[in-house]
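Hey, resending since the last one bounced:
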Amino acid sequence: DDEGELPIVPRADIIPPTVISTQPANGAVNVTLNSLIKATFSEAMKKTTVNGATITISPATLGAVSYDATANTVTFTPSAGLAPNTSYTMTIATGVQDAAGNPLASTKTWSFTTGSGAPLQNMLINGDFEGGNTGWPGTNSAGKNNINLNSGLGHNSSNWYIFPGKLDNLMSAT
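The structure tokens again:
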């Protein structure tokens, strides 16, 4: 009864993956020193090809490369943070492959520059902080700096931290 009909044969995936977004963005300035560097691919990638040989940073910085298959995102996590006032270039080589084995269409590079890191460092070093509602900057009657917790800075028993969406990473006060 199927005479004259051609069988349906699935097409092989021959479309190369691309990088659809980066964090920080290309050309970003004043990037925080504790930033994670991320790139999102257009499709699922072969995890074994997403590694320190295919994902590099210049100047060389110690860190770890990880891949989140759910989000199709590679993350470079610097071991000790980024250097202040430094221009970095990230490179994703064509050695990365999608799940079907197609290499990245072309090498992806993007650059960003870190900030000094000084505002947060100075704030943590120079003040005896306590929560307050008078905003920042300001002092209370005891001469201590007040921080409006709505600014995104918080504190627990041992750490200062920045709320998600502000700088996205925890900061230690020590």
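Residues 118-126 form the longest helix (9 residues).

Sorry for the duplicate.
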